[in-house]
Amino acid sequence: MAQHRLGIIMNGVTGRMGMNQHLIRSIIAIRAQGGVALNNGDRVMPDPILVGRNAEKVEGLAKSHGITRWTTDLDAALKNPHDRLFFDAATTQLRAELLRKAMAAGKHIYCEKPVADNLDDALDLVRIAKRAGIKHGVVQDKLFLPGLLKLRMLIESGFFGRLFAVRGEFGYWVFEGDWQPANRPSWNYRKQDGGGIILDMLCHWRYVLDNLFGEVKSVSCLGAIHIPKRVDEDGHPYAADADDAAYATFELAGGVIAHINSSWCTRVRRDDLVTFHVDGTHGSAVAGLQKCWSQARVNTPRPVWNPDVPQPINFFETWSEVPGLDTYDNGFKTEWELFIRHLYEDAPFKWTLLEGAKGVQLAEAGLQSWKERRWVDIPKLTV
After folding, report:
1. 14, 122, 152, 212: least CB-packed within 10 angstroms?
2. Pairwise CA distance, residues 229 & 237, whole Å
3. pTM, whole model, 2 decimals?
4. For residues 86 and 78, is the Cβ–Cβ distance under 8 A?
5. Bridge partners of 4?
Protein backbone atom coordinates (compact mmCIF):
# COMPACT_ATOMS: atom_id res chain seq x y z
CA MET A 1 0.00 0.00 0.00
CA ALA A 2 1.22 3.46 -0.89
CA GLN A 3 0.22 6.95 0.20
CA HIS A 4 -0.18 9.61 -2.47
CA ARG A 5 0.07 13.33 -1.77
CA LEU A 6 -2.60 15.52 -3.40
CA GLY A 7 -1.61 19.17 -3.43
CA ILE A 8 -4.75 21.34 -3.43
CA ILE A 9 -4.80 25.08 -4.03
CA MET A 10 -7.81 26.17 -1.95
CA ASN A 11 -9.05 29.64 -2.88
CA GLY A 12 -11.81 31.42 -0.98
CA VAL A 13 -11.78 29.32 2.17
CA THR A 14 -11.80 32.27 4.56
CA GLY A 15 -15.51 32.67 3.77
CA ARG A 16 -18.18 30.88 5.78
CA MET A 17 -18.93 28.06 3.35
CA GLY A 18 -15.36 27.55 2.17
CA MET A 19 -13.99 27.46 5.70
CA ASN A 20 -16.63 25.40 7.48
CA GLN A 21 -17.79 22.90 4.89
CA HIS A 22 -14.84 22.53 2.55
CA LEU A 23 -11.77 23.14 4.70
CA ILE A 24 -12.74 22.06 8.22
CA ARG A 25 -15.46 19.45 7.66
CA SER A 26 -14.04 18.02 4.43
CA ILE A 27 -10.29 18.38 3.83
CA ILE A 28 -9.18 18.56 7.46
CA ALA A 29 -11.56 15.72 8.34
CA ILE A 30 -10.17 13.62 5.48
CA ARG A 31 -6.63 14.27 6.71
CA ALA A 32 -7.65 13.28 10.24
CA GLN A 33 -9.00 9.93 9.02
CA GLY A 34 -5.76 9.14 7.21
CA GLY A 35 -6.74 10.23 3.71
CA VAL A 36 -9.03 8.75 1.07
CA ALA A 37 -8.85 4.99 0.55
CA LEU A 38 -8.55 3.72 -3.04
CA ASN A 39 -9.74 0.34 -4.29
CA ASN A 40 -6.18 -1.03 -4.45
CA GLY A 41 -5.53 -0.21 -0.80
CA ASP A 42 -3.53 2.96 -1.46
CA ARG A 43 -4.51 6.20 0.27
CA VAL A 44 -4.58 9.80 -0.94
CA MET A 45 -3.62 12.47 1.57
CA PRO A 46 -4.75 16.04 0.75
CA ASP A 47 -2.07 18.68 1.27
CA PRO A 48 -3.79 22.07 0.99
CA ILE A 49 -2.31 25.50 0.46
CA LEU A 50 -4.77 28.19 1.53
CA VAL A 51 -5.10 31.25 -0.70
CA GLY A 52 -6.73 34.52 0.28
CA ARG A 53 -6.43 38.28 -0.15
CA ASN A 54 -6.16 39.08 3.56
CA ALA A 55 -2.79 37.78 4.79
CA GLU A 56 -3.65 38.02 8.49
CA LYS A 57 -6.91 36.18 8.00
CA VAL A 58 -5.57 33.36 5.85
CA GLU A 59 -2.48 32.87 8.01
CA GLY A 60 -4.62 32.70 11.15
CA LEU A 61 -6.92 30.15 9.56
CA ALA A 62 -4.00 27.99 8.47
CA LYS A 63 -2.30 28.07 11.86
CA SER A 64 -5.50 27.33 13.77
CA HIS A 65 -5.90 24.08 11.85
CA GLY A 66 -2.29 22.94 11.64
CA ILE A 67 -1.85 23.81 7.95
CA THR A 68 1.67 24.95 7.13
CA ARG A 69 1.07 26.39 3.65
CA TRP A 70 -0.75 29.61 2.87
CA THR A 71 -0.31 32.57 0.52
CA THR A 72 -1.90 35.71 -0.87
CA ASP A 73 -0.25 35.14 -4.26
CA LEU A 74 -2.54 32.95 -6.34
CA ASP A 75 -0.39 33.24 -9.46
CA ALA A 76 2.62 31.87 -7.61
CA ALA A 77 0.54 29.03 -6.17
CA LEU A 78 -0.67 28.05 -9.65
CA LYS A 79 2.93 27.78 -10.85
CA ASN A 80 3.71 24.97 -8.39
CA PRO A 81 3.63 21.74 -10.46
CA HIS A 82 3.27 19.64 -7.30
CA ASP A 83 -0.19 21.06 -6.55
CA ARG A 84 -2.46 19.34 -9.09
CA LEU A 85 -5.93 20.51 -8.04
CA PHE A 86 -7.44 23.99 -7.87
CA PHE A 87 -10.52 24.54 -5.69
CA ASP A 88 -12.53 27.74 -5.62
CA ALA A 89 -15.22 28.90 -3.18
CA ALA A 90 -14.76 32.65 -3.63
CA THR A 91 -17.24 35.05 -5.24
CA THR A 92 -19.26 33.95 -8.24
CA GLN A 93 -18.30 36.96 -10.37
CA LEU A 94 -14.60 36.03 -10.26
CA ARG A 95 -15.01 32.26 -10.59
CA ALA A 96 -15.00 31.83 -14.38
CA GLU A 97 -11.80 33.82 -14.83
CA LEU A 98 -10.08 32.05 -11.94
CA LEU A 99 -11.02 28.64 -13.34
CA ARG A 100 -9.69 29.64 -16.78
CA LYS A 101 -6.41 30.71 -15.19
CA ALA A 102 -6.12 27.47 -13.23
CA MET A 103 -6.86 25.32 -16.27
CA ALA A 104 -4.30 27.26 -18.29
CA ALA A 105 -1.81 26.27 -15.58
CA GLY A 106 -2.75 22.61 -16.11
CA LYS A 107 -4.70 22.15 -12.89
CA HIS A 108 -7.67 19.87 -12.38
CA ILE A 109 -10.75 21.76 -11.21
CA TYR A 110 -13.21 21.40 -8.34
CA CYS A 111 -15.40 24.37 -7.42
CA GLU A 112 -18.50 25.74 -5.80
CA LYS A 113 -21.53 26.78 -7.77
CA PRO A 114 -22.63 28.81 -9.61
CA VAL A 115 -19.65 28.03 -11.86
CA ALA A 116 -20.15 31.41 -13.57
CA ASP A 117 -22.62 34.28 -13.52
CA ASN A 118 -23.74 33.66 -17.12
CA LEU A 119 -24.25 30.63 -19.35
CA ASP A 120 -21.77 31.68 -22.05
CA ASP A 121 -18.91 31.68 -19.55
CA ALA A 122 -20.12 28.43 -17.98
CA LEU A 123 -20.09 26.64 -21.35
CA ASP A 124 -16.74 28.17 -22.23
CA LEU A 125 -15.29 26.56 -19.11
CA VAL A 126 -16.63 23.17 -20.23
CA ARG A 127 -14.98 23.57 -23.65
CA ILE A 128 -11.64 24.65 -22.14
CA ALA A 129 -11.64 21.68 -19.78
CA LYS A 130 -12.46 19.30 -22.62
CA ARG A 131 -9.63 20.64 -24.81
CA ALA A 132 -7.17 20.54 -21.92
CA GLY A 133 -8.10 16.99 -20.95
CA ILE A 134 -8.40 17.88 -17.28
CA LYS A 135 -10.76 16.40 -14.72
CA HIS A 136 -13.36 18.71 -13.25
CA GLY A 137 -16.15 18.68 -10.70
CA VAL A 138 -18.75 20.98 -9.20
CA VAL A 139 -20.12 20.90 -5.65
CA GLN A 140 -23.69 19.52 -5.66
CA ASP A 141 -23.90 19.04 -1.92
CA LYS A 142 -27.63 18.67 -1.35
CA LEU A 143 -27.66 15.31 -3.15
CA PHE A 144 -25.63 13.88 -0.27
CA LEU A 145 -27.82 15.14 2.58
CA PRO A 146 -29.37 12.41 4.77
CA GLY A 147 -32.91 13.65 4.14
CA LEU A 148 -32.53 13.54 0.36
CA LEU A 149 -30.67 10.22 0.46
CA LYS A 150 -33.67 8.74 2.30
CA LEU A 151 -35.97 10.35 -0.25
CA ARG A 152 -33.95 8.82 -3.07
CA MET A 153 -34.31 5.42 -1.39
CA LEU A 154 -38.09 5.82 -1.40
CA ILE A 155 -38.08 6.78 -5.08
CA GLU A 156 -35.86 3.89 -6.13
CA SER A 157 -37.95 1.40 -4.11
CA GLY A 158 -41.10 2.37 -6.03
CA PHE A 159 -42.78 3.71 -2.89
CA PHE A 160 -44.47 6.62 -4.67
CA GLY A 161 -45.99 4.70 -7.55
CA ARG A 162 -46.31 7.32 -10.27
CA LEU A 163 -44.66 10.47 -8.94
CA PHE A 164 -46.42 13.64 -10.09
CA ALA A 165 -45.70 16.63 -7.83
CA VAL A 166 -42.89 18.22 -5.79
CA ARG A 167 -43.28 21.27 -3.54
CA GLY A 168 -40.15 22.81 -2.07
CA GLU A 169 -39.85 25.49 0.61
CA PHE A 170 -36.47 27.06 1.23
CA GLY A 171 -35.37 30.05 3.26
CA TYR A 172 -35.37 31.97 6.50
CA TRP A 173 -35.35 35.56 7.72
CA VAL A 174 -32.13 37.41 6.93
CA PHE A 175 -31.95 40.40 9.25
CA GLU A 176 -31.74 43.79 7.58
CA GLY A 177 -28.62 44.77 9.49
CA ASP A 178 -30.01 47.79 11.36
CA TRP A 179 -31.22 46.69 14.78
CA GLN A 180 -29.58 43.26 14.49
CA PRO A 181 -26.54 42.29 12.38
CA ALA A 182 -27.35 40.63 9.06
CA ASN A 183 -26.84 36.85 8.99
CA ARG A 184 -25.76 36.79 5.32
CA PRO A 185 -23.09 38.93 3.60
CA SER A 186 -24.37 42.15 2.07
CA TRP A 187 -23.10 41.31 -1.45
CA ASN A 188 -25.98 38.81 -1.73
CA TYR A 189 -28.39 41.74 -2.07
CA ARG A 190 -26.44 43.87 -4.59
CA LYS A 191 -26.85 43.06 -8.28
CA GLN A 192 -23.48 44.57 -9.21
CA ASP A 193 -21.73 42.14 -6.84
CA GLY A 194 -23.40 39.05 -8.26
CA GLY A 195 -26.15 38.85 -5.66
CA GLY A 196 -29.67 37.52 -6.04
CA ILE A 197 -31.47 34.41 -4.83
CA ILE A 198 -32.39 33.24 -8.33
CA LEU A 199 -28.75 32.88 -9.43
CA ASP A 200 -27.83 31.41 -6.06
CA MET A 201 -30.62 28.87 -5.51
CA LEU A 202 -31.90 27.81 -8.94
CA CYS A 203 -28.44 26.30 -9.52
CA HIS A 204 -29.18 24.06 -6.53
CA TRP A 205 -32.71 23.24 -7.59
CA ARG A 206 -31.50 22.20 -11.06
CA TYR A 207 -29.34 19.35 -9.80
CA VAL A 208 -31.86 18.31 -7.12
CA LEU A 209 -34.72 18.16 -9.63
CA ASP A 210 -32.68 16.55 -12.43
CA ASN A 211 -31.19 13.85 -10.22
CA LEU A 212 -34.21 12.95 -8.10
CA PHE A 213 -37.45 13.77 -9.88
CA GLY A 214 -36.88 14.34 -13.61
CA GLU A 215 -34.95 16.57 -15.98
CA VAL A 216 -36.15 20.19 -15.99
CA LYS A 217 -37.92 21.04 -19.25
CA SER A 218 -39.29 24.54 -18.59
CA VAL A 219 -39.62 27.16 -15.87
CA SER A 220 -41.93 29.96 -14.83
CA CYS A 221 -40.31 32.20 -12.22
CA LEU A 222 -41.32 35.36 -10.40
CA GLY A 223 -38.61 37.16 -8.47
CA ALA A 224 -39.07 39.89 -5.87
CA ILE A 225 -37.13 42.46 -3.87
CA HIS A 226 -39.12 42.45 -0.66
CA ILE A 227 -36.56 44.35 1.45
CA PRO A 228 -35.19 47.22 -0.72
CA LYS A 229 -32.98 48.80 1.97
CA ARG A 230 -30.42 47.02 4.12
CA VAL A 231 -27.36 47.85 6.25
CA ASP A 232 -23.93 46.41 5.43
CA GLU A 233 -21.21 44.95 7.65
CA ASP A 234 -19.78 48.44 8.38
CA GLY A 235 -23.13 49.87 9.41
CA HIS A 236 -23.74 51.73 6.14
CA PRO A 237 -27.22 51.68 4.58
CA TYR A 238 -27.40 50.52 0.97
CA ALA A 239 -29.99 49.86 -1.71
CA ALA A 240 -30.73 46.15 -2.00
CA ASP A 241 -31.41 45.82 -5.73
CA ALA A 242 -30.97 42.04 -6.13
CA ASP A 243 -33.87 39.61 -5.76
CA ASP A 244 -34.32 38.27 -2.22
CA ALA A 245 -37.18 35.88 -3.04
CA ALA A 246 -38.18 33.69 -5.97
CA TYR A 247 -41.35 31.73 -6.66
CA ALA A 248 -40.68 29.17 -9.39
CA THR A 249 -42.65 26.41 -11.08
CA PHE A 250 -40.89 23.74 -13.13
CA GLU A 251 -42.13 21.23 -15.69
CA LEU A 252 -40.07 18.03 -15.46
CA ALA A 253 -39.63 15.06 -17.72
CA GLY A 254 -42.32 12.44 -17.19
CA GLY A 255 -45.02 14.98 -16.43
CA VAL A 256 -43.87 15.86 -12.90
CA ILE A 257 -44.72 19.40 -11.75
CA ALA A 258 -42.41 21.02 -9.20
CA HIS A 259 -42.85 24.31 -7.38
CA ILE A 260 -40.15 25.76 -5.13
CA ASN A 261 -40.33 28.94 -3.07
CA SER A 262 -36.94 30.44 -2.18
CA SER A 263 -36.84 33.36 0.23
CA TRP A 264 -34.54 35.27 2.53
CA CYS A 265 -37.62 37.12 3.78
CA THR A 266 -39.63 34.40 5.49
CA ARG A 267 -39.94 33.21 9.06
CA VAL A 268 -39.68 29.46 9.44
CA ARG A 269 -42.57 27.32 10.64
CA ARG A 270 -41.78 23.96 9.09
CA ASP A 271 -39.55 21.00 9.82
CA ASP A 272 -36.32 22.46 8.40
CA LEU A 273 -34.80 25.37 6.50
CA VAL A 274 -35.55 23.46 3.30
CA THR A 275 -38.24 20.85 2.82
CA PHE A 276 -39.44 18.89 -0.22
CA HIS A 277 -42.99 17.52 -0.20
CA VAL A 278 -43.30 14.78 -2.81
CA ASP A 279 -46.62 13.29 -3.95
CA GLY A 280 -47.26 10.08 -5.88
CA THR A 281 -50.19 7.80 -6.53
CA HIS A 282 -49.12 5.29 -3.86
CA GLY A 283 -47.57 7.54 -1.25
CA SER A 284 -46.15 10.90 -0.23
CA ALA A 285 -43.02 12.02 1.61
CA VAL A 286 -41.54 15.14 3.15
CA ALA A 287 -37.75 15.44 3.31
CA GLY A 288 -35.63 18.00 5.11
CA LEU A 289 -31.87 18.26 5.49
CA GLN A 290 -31.58 15.32 7.88
CA LYS A 291 -34.94 13.58 8.22
CA CYS A 292 -37.64 12.24 5.94
CA TRP A 293 -41.26 11.29 6.69
CA SER A 294 -43.58 9.18 4.54
CA GLN A 295 -47.25 8.37 4.29
CA ALA A 296 -48.39 5.39 2.21
CA ARG A 297 -51.72 5.11 0.43
CA VAL A 298 -53.00 2.60 3.00
CA ASN A 299 -52.09 4.96 5.88
CA THR A 300 -53.62 8.10 4.41
CA PRO A 301 -56.33 9.61 6.69
CA ARG A 302 -59.73 10.71 5.40
CA PRO A 303 -60.19 14.33 6.46
CA VAL A 304 -63.58 16.01 6.34
CA TRP A 305 -63.83 19.71 5.54
CA ASN A 306 -65.67 21.43 8.36
CA PRO A 307 -64.51 24.96 9.17
CA ASP A 308 -66.91 25.21 12.13
CA VAL A 309 -65.00 22.88 14.45
CA PRO A 310 -61.31 22.47 15.34
CA GLN A 311 -59.51 20.00 13.10
CA PRO A 312 -59.83 16.61 14.81
CA ILE A 313 -56.89 14.98 12.99
CA ASN A 314 -53.31 15.67 14.04
CA PHE A 315 -51.88 15.31 10.55
CA PHE A 316 -48.27 15.25 11.73
CA GLU A 317 -48.97 12.07 13.71
CA THR A 318 -50.16 10.24 10.57
CA TRP A 319 -46.67 10.25 9.04
CA SER A 320 -43.84 7.79 9.75
CA GLU A 321 -40.17 8.68 9.88
CA VAL A 322 -38.11 6.94 7.22
CA PRO A 323 -35.21 5.02 8.79
CA GLY A 324 -31.76 5.33 7.33
CA LEU A 325 -28.20 4.37 8.07
CA ASP A 326 -26.97 4.70 11.64
CA THR A 327 -24.68 7.55 10.60
CA TYR A 328 -24.24 9.79 7.57
CA ASP A 329 -21.01 11.55 6.76
CA ASN A 330 -20.86 15.24 5.91
CA GLY A 331 -22.26 15.67 2.38
CA PHE A 332 -19.50 18.02 1.25
CA LYS A 333 -16.87 15.57 2.51
CA THR A 334 -18.58 12.67 0.73
CA GLU A 335 -18.44 14.46 -2.61
CA TRP A 336 -14.82 15.49 -2.03
CA GLU A 337 -13.90 11.83 -1.50
CA LEU A 338 -15.76 10.81 -4.67
CA PHE A 339 -13.90 13.44 -6.68
CA ILE A 340 -10.52 12.46 -5.26
CA ARG A 341 -11.18 8.83 -6.23
CA HIS A 342 -12.15 10.10 -9.67
CA LEU A 343 -8.76 11.84 -9.92
CA TYR A 344 -6.72 8.80 -8.93
CA GLU A 345 -8.61 5.77 -10.23
CA ASP A 346 -11.03 7.31 -12.72
CA ALA A 347 -14.01 6.34 -10.56
CA PRO A 348 -17.34 7.60 -11.95
CA PHE A 349 -18.11 11.24 -11.22
CA LYS A 350 -21.07 12.83 -13.00
CA TRP A 351 -21.15 16.25 -11.33
CA THR A 352 -18.92 18.03 -13.83
CA LEU A 353 -18.64 21.57 -15.16
CA LEU A 354 -21.39 20.69 -17.63
CA GLU A 355 -23.72 19.87 -14.75
CA GLY A 356 -22.72 23.18 -13.20
CA ALA A 357 -23.53 24.94 -16.48
CA LYS A 358 -27.02 23.42 -16.36
CA GLY A 359 -27.58 25.21 -13.07
CA VAL A 360 -26.52 28.53 -14.59
CA GLN A 361 -28.79 27.82 -17.56
CA LEU A 362 -31.79 27.40 -15.27
CA ALA A 363 -30.92 30.54 -13.29
CA GLU A 364 -30.71 32.57 -16.52
CA ALA A 365 -34.02 31.11 -17.68
CA GLY A 366 -35.58 32.02 -14.33
CA LEU A 367 -34.39 35.61 -14.63
CA GLN A 368 -35.65 35.75 -18.22
CA SER A 369 -39.02 34.35 -17.14
CA TRP A 370 -39.31 37.02 -14.44
CA LYS A 371 -38.36 39.81 -16.84
CA GLU A 372 -40.64 38.67 -19.67
CA ARG A 373 -43.41 37.27 -17.42
CA ARG A 374 -43.69 33.96 -19.29
CA TRP A 375 -42.70 30.27 -19.34
CA VAL A 376 -39.17 29.62 -20.66
CA ASP A 377 -38.14 26.26 -22.16
CA ILE A 378 -34.84 24.65 -21.11
CA PRO A 379 -33.08 23.16 -24.18
CA LYS A 380 -30.55 20.36 -23.83
CA LEU A 381 -27.01 21.72 -23.44
CA THR A 382 -24.39 20.62 -25.96
CA VAL A 383 -20.74 21.61 -26.22
Report:
1. 152
2. 7
3. 0.95
4. yes
5. 44
